[in-house]
Amino acid sequence: MQLAKTLRQSPLHIAAQLKNELEQAGRMEGLLNRIETAPPGFLNFHIDWNVWVRKDFRLSEAGGGKVVIEHTSINPNKSAHIGHLRNACIGDSLARLLKKAGYRVEVHNYIDDLGNQLADTVVGLLNVNHQAEHLRFGDYCWELYARVNKEYEQNSALLEQRSRVLQALEDGDGNVAWIGLLTAERIVREHLEEMKSFGIDYDLLVWESRIVREGFWDSAFRLLQQTELFHRETSGKLEGCWVLKQPVPESEAEPDTEHQADKVLVRSNGILTYTAKDIAYHLWKFGLLTNDFRYKGISDGLWSTHAEGIAADYGKADLVVNVIDRRQEYPQAMVKQALEVLGFEAPAKNLRHVGYGVVSLSPGAAIDLGIDTSDGKTAYAMSGRQGIGIKVSDLLGLMEAQIEGKRSDPKGLSSRLIAAAAIRYYLLRFALPTEVVFDIQQATETTGNTGVYLMYAHARAANILTKAQANELLRTESLPEDFTPLERAEHALLRQIAAWPDTLSAACEELSPTPICHFAYELATLFNHFYTACPILKAEPNRQPFRLWLTAIFKNVIADVLDVIGLPAPDRM
Questions:
Q1: What was the pLDDT predicted at 256?
Q2: 117 HSE (CA, 13 A, CB side)
Q3: Where are the alpha helices (DSSP H) in 407-476?
Q4: For residue 173, is it left (φ>0), alpha (ψ between -120 and 50) or beta?
Q5: What's the pTM?
């Protein structure tokens, strides 16, 4: 129809020409049993399902390029909360997705052991007398971190100590630095245990302190000094600071927005900003520095940067993906700009920021935490400084109890695994920019768009096939020689299964697990409709082989889908 004016022909005539060309050229490789034109200029394609189901459709592989994905990256100063968990679930699902697409994927967890948050916890450990009984050190520090931030408001001398602690952490020698290191290491171990419960793993822990002490920033600094946009301010409020100037568009003589403000990389007191260290880290990620870390294995498959480690082959990425909440868009843009300023155009283009919305609490969840909800808000923000939020470990225990109270079959998947899967899917199914308002009751529902519903669909298919084998109804999972899907539910399920490779491709392009979640829910729903509308084990003899085959194909595809989003594929719930 868009060509009608250009070609000066009617849309229907153009459609007929396209139809003839496709038929004569033998395109579509027999997948279509007919093509029809329809007014005012449509082409309708009718799939020959007998041909289609015998094709081996696969996601086109990406050619083996290497991707470094950085996610989780929780400040090692207290226990993780559900906002951190959303980051980790998104990042882990992207890693699974890109592996499925044929990329070589390396997963990093960046440990900010020189930042303000760890400094605050160290200040609290040294100066605040906090008495509380906890099984985990991170939970103790959760309360301590909130307390020290309240103390800052009343004690300016205590706040001044933060700068001294920051400097001590960066220097890396002395009592304060050791206290910071031991605190960070203990809490990181607890974070790793928590993430393991959700099936989340890493290849490499990158400690910020190693970036400073191994000379990464020194190398980056020398490179930046050769550019015109990086210089030291000699006057004004930024006097003594090294800044990366923002290029001003010709249309704006006087920039006045945040994205055009100067960005400090080194403060006047010599302390590096987070962005400075991040620039150095990304130069290394792309293999653009001569420096390298040394590495030490800390558990099966997990390595860490370490002063006394060995040489290993990490980094040197073709594509870098950073999963960081969307409020960090500006610092991420600064890293990309630094790469561009240094002339590394291709790496700058291949640096992708996957931003996402924060996690808030529903009124019900807020009430459970003792938060005053009399103002009638629809959501309540979490705040580590105020000690408001749901810790990951507490949430998992609470959800496990909810699942245990609802289930009728204790012999299937453990309640803890079901709870972890339910939480994970709840945090993944919303569009990335969306703020997630977490509600415990909704996340544990067994119907609707939940992880439990998806796993039930796989278990149902597995149960049908097990019974069929026991009754010698299913001798093979291959397709019958000839079949015709007559029922609408059969057609609908086949069409959804056919969309799986395209859905994977779209999710890879978007760098988002959301299309996978939408596909998974629709697939499970259509299978359940098929199960209800079309008898399988009691089907007529001429229909049963096809329906058993369709059930087996569904089971394979839903298992593949669940694997990408990090959920179990149980044979029994």
A1: 46
A2: 20
A3: 415-428, 440-443, 451-470
A4: beta
A5: 0.90
